[in-house]
Amino acid sequence: MSTPTRPPVPPFTRESAIEKVRLAEDAWNTRDPAKVALAYSADSRWRNRAEFVAGREAIVAFLSRKWARELDYRLVKELWAHTDHRIAVRFAYEWHDDSGQWYRSYGNENWEFDADGLMRARHASINDLPIQESARLYHWPLGRRPDGHPGLTDLGL
Hints:
By secondary structure, the chain is of the alpha+beta class. The protein has helices at residues 14-30, 33-37, 56-69, 152-155; strands at residues 40-48, 51-54, 71-82, 86-96, 102-113, 119-131.
């Protein structure tokens, strides 16, 4: 059985790297762990904060736990840099816990892709900032960020 290709594939141009970042953002904003996991190689390795994850099954379990805890999650990603098969992004997402406390989580990710465009490595560093609900910047309906919504740079993040 052949591995599915996940365009755009390396080598990345600036335009294809921006497209890859937006596709990742769109997938994560679905909050569907099984769908998100398909963008990663079967043996993908992650470092997310202090947690280490390996393989799609573990990715699905990790994301299921994450989105059970991080409610009303909305994410914006932005390209920081790229090479032929690596992409660096910065991101910010907003969410609240089960007590109603809102957070804006800021971070950076380093991604490495295989020839089929599947992410084989993801290294994420993330910090959480408690915010008042009135300080929220992401108000679109759950799901994909609308095309006209400002990105991180436009929001001053």
